[in-house]
Design goal:
The chain is an alpha/beta fold. It has four helices and seven strands. It has one domain. Helix content is 30%, strand content 22%. α4 links the parallel β6 and β7. The radius of gyration is 13 Å and the shape is globular.
């Protein structure tokens, strides 16, 4: 049986213009609906998949940025995902926890194979 329900939510282009907590940085209606979905799903922990910062906790203070994995090379996305997985391993069990992944394939393709239990219920382009 899995021990935690963890949501991984992709960042979006629309951001605040000032440094703030990661949860407040992303201001699109899509991002807000994904956060609502993760909360209603019962996530015990929610992380943001940031093109620049990798795996972000909601309270982490970050500055605005313009990095987009959708235009990164496969090799760049693979390196980025390795960093995300390393951080995730220190916070969760990739074999025991259940992951809700709200991200397109550019953000998730190299992460998903590392997770034993996951779902991707939304089609995100």
């Amino acid at each position: 049986m899995t021990s935690q329900k963890i949501a991984l939510i992709a960042c979006v282009k629309e951001k605040q213009l000032r440094p703030c907590a990661a949860a407040e940085m992303y201001i699109s209606s899509d991002f807000k609906s994904w956060m609502d979905y993760a909360e209603s799903w019962g996530a015990s922990q929610i992380y943001i998949l940031s093109g620049k910062y990798g795996l972000l906790e909601l309270e982490e203070k970050i500055a605005p940025y313009d990095v987009n994995l959708n235009i990164a090379t496969s090799q760049e996305r693979k390196r980025w995902a390795q960093g995300v997985i390393e951080k995730l391993k220190s916070r969760a069990s990739l074999r025991e926890d259940y992951f809700l992944v709200l991200a397109n394939s550019n953000y998730s393709e190299y992460i998903i194979p590392q997770l034993k239990h996951y779902s991707m219920p939304l089609k995100i382009d």
